[in-house]
Amino acid sequence: MSEKRLEISELGEFGLIRRIREKFTPGNANSVLGIGDDAAVIDSGDYYLLVATDMLVEGIHFDLTYTPIQHLGYKAVAVNVSDIAAMNGRCEQITVNIAISNRFSVEAIDALYEGIKAACENYKVDLVGGDTTSSISGLMISVTAVGRVAKDRVVYRSGARENDIICVTGDLGGAFAGLQVLEREKQVFLANPDMQPALEKYDYIVGRQLKPDARTEIVFDFEELGVVPTSMIDISDGLASELLHLSNESNVGVRIYEDKVPIDQLTFETAVEFKLDPITCALNGGEDYELLFTIRKEDQDKLKRHPEIHMIGYVHSRPQENIMISKQGTVVPLKAQGWNHLRRTD
Ligand code: ADP
Ligand code: MG
Predict the structure, then answer these.
(1) Would you state the pLDDT for residue 195?
(2) What is the mean pLDDT of the chain?
(3) Which listed residue, of 195, 221, 227, 316, carries a Cα 20 to 30 Å from 12's Cα?
(4) 35 CA closest ligand 1 atom index
């Protein structure tokens, strides 16, 4: 009898990455940090070079029935620039790999690259290479981002310490709420192709899903305000999952407060319309590409008045105790849903 094979679902995405990580220990002296953060860190003399890569796959990360292909190009760049920002760095170059089939016209690929170009211009990033190949299973776009950070300003997932303040930028849950709207309109359209999608009312959250922006300006604000966060990660999988990454990598625990988690009014109303709990969209929805970071208590005043920064909780010393205090005052354990739960994650 043959032994039962190990299913990927038994490990989950994070378990699988952990398994790969255990097999590779960087050996070169300039490999400062390998697998396990938003970007790899390479010593380049006066500064650290940052390298991040992310792949978007048709049917998993995007659905071309409602995704304008130029937005997809923009998003593929934005999510990588976001990973560089999560190290407190600036992205300067990208390479782009695409796998395409003859289902796509030259015009479609032009449109994809228009979006890529718009993102390059917006983030002041140069496209410096890539690879083009064919695919029989839809479109794939893989972007690698290269950035830089001063050695004394690099921020890892692992630096959070007891009593640090937990902060997030912008608002959360919007991208997931936007996805619900798009999926519903797709079903309406499939049932009756004469129906025009009613999206105007949902502009903000649909935009959050289709054309997210990386929080590059926050990196400049930190510098200007004289703050180096103690830890940082970008929110691609959802607040809960990212908080658990900070907890794991920093060997600390986190406590956040539901009433402090920033949720836009439209996100809130749309979640309710879809019979979802708005806080669940923020905790587990993902794809908001906001920054989650911790700061020392002494730095609190420097960021207090920043309109895009919200303080949502604090760090304590018990790594197993990662909780949210609900609006009713109950204790809710934070759980990472990740890959196994939702259709789309990274
Ligand atoms: P993010 O959500 O910030 O893009 P991921 O969860 O995708 O981060 O990846 C976490 C870490 O694991 C990163 O350091 C990434 O480079 C690494 N990683 C992910 N997949 C692989 C893989 N197949 N091989 C090697 N490293 C990987
Ligand atoms: Mg990331």
Answers:
(1) 76
(2) 94
(3) 316
(4) 14
Residues with Cβ within 8 Å of 136's Cβ and at least 6 positions away in sequence, in order, are: 101
Residue 240 φ then ψ, to 5°: -60, -50
Output the residue whose Cα is nearest ligand 1's atom 1. 38
- For residues 262 and 280, what is the distance between their CA atoms, to the nearest angstrom? 12
Paired with 253 in beta bridges are 316
Is residue 242 lining ligand 1, measured as CB closer than 6 Å?
no
The pLDDT score that the predictor gives to residue 137 is 84
| Burial state string for 306-322 with b = 16 or more CB within 10 A and e = fewer than 16 | eebbbbbbbbbeeeeeb
- pLDDT for the residue numbered 240: 97
Span 171-204, pLDDT tens digits: 999 999 999 999 999 988 888 877 777 788 999 9
**Choice from 17, 87, 88 to test ligand 1 binding pocket (greatest atom count within 8 A of CB):** 17
Tell me if 80 sits within 8 A of 145, measured CB to CB.
Answer: yes
With contact defined as beta carbons under 8 Å apart, do 76 and 210 qualify? no
| Of 128, 105, 159, nearest in space to 295 by CA | 159
- 35 CA distance to ligand 1 middle (Å): 6
13 CA closest ligand 1 atom index: 6
Q: Read off φ and ψ for residue 238, nearest 5 degrees.
A: 125, 150
For residue 195 and ligand 1, the question of a CB distance below 6 A is answered with no
Residue nearest to atom 11 of ligand 1 (CA): 36
Sheet with 40-43, side-by-side order of all strands: 31-33, 40-43, 47-57, 140-150, 90-100, 126-134
Global model pTM greater than 0.90: yes
pLDDT below 50 — which residues of the chain? 339-346
